[in-house]
Amino acid sequence: MNIQLEKMKQKQECERRKRLAEEKHKEWMQKKREEERREREQKQSKEMAEKATRELEKMQLQEKAEVKYKEWLKKKRAEESEKKKREKEKEKEREAELQEKRERSEKIFQEWLRNARNKPRPVLNGYGLPHRKSTGLYSCYTYVVA
After folding, report:
1. Model pLDDT, residue 3
2. pLDDT of 42
3. Splitting the chain (146 residues) into consecutive groups of 10 residues, what average pLDDT does each group show?
4. 135 beta partners
5. I want to staple 132 with a disulfide (CB 3.0 to 4.6 A). Which of 27, 31, 102, 126 is the partner?
6. Nearest residue to 30 (alpha-carbon basis) of 20, 40, 41, 22
7. Where would I find the Coiled-coil domain in this sequence (predicted)?
8. Is 53 a member of any domain?
9. What per-residue confidence (pLDDT) applies to 124?
10. Rounded to an integer, what distance in angstroms lies between the CA atom of residue 76 and that of residue 100?
């Protein structure tokens, strides 16, 4: 009877240990799951933070690029405006030179007209030679025989 009682006690002890081991295993599994869940959440939150940081950097870079583009465009437009201004000035100078040249030409022409009125006119008949007689060829070396 003692042996049976002893066996029963051992069996109960074994079952108690088994239950205890199962409970500890369940607790360990629950802790493990909880820990894995926390790690996943931390990983997700870290990834979200990194993603937000990347997006922010991307936006800042885009804004920076836009500002630089606007500055470049402003500079380019200023250069074009300056170039057009210089071209207009050159055109004005050319016009002024042409006008001055026309005025000089007109002045010279008027002076020539004034002088031409005062010059003696050549005799039309006889090529300016008396008695319409000349010998030899008609050239600058033509001479008159009287």
Report:
1. 87
2. 97
3. 86 93 95 97 97 97 97 98 97 97 95 82 55 52 52
4. 143
5. 126
6. 22
7. 4-134
8. yes
9. 57
10. 36
Residue 132 resides in a domain: no
Per-residue pLDDT, 5: 86
Which amino acid, 53?
T
Give a yes or no: residue 87 inside a domain. Answer: yes
Domain span at residue 112 reads 2-119
In a domain, 44, yes or no: yes
Q: Are 135 and 143 in contact (CB under 8 A)?
A: yes
What pLDDT is recorded for position 141? 53
State how far Cα 60 lies from the chain centre: 20
- Can you give the three-state secondary structure of the chain, one letter per residue? CHHHHHHHHHHHHHHHHHHHHHHHHHHHHHHHHHHHHHHHHHHHHHHHHHHHHHHHHHHHHHHHHHHHHHHHHHHHHHHHHHHHHHHHHHHHHHHHHHHHHHHHHHHHHHHHHHHHHHCCCCCCHHHHCHHHCCECCCCCCCECCC
Q: pTM of the prediction?
A: 0.45
Q: Domain count of the chain? A: 1
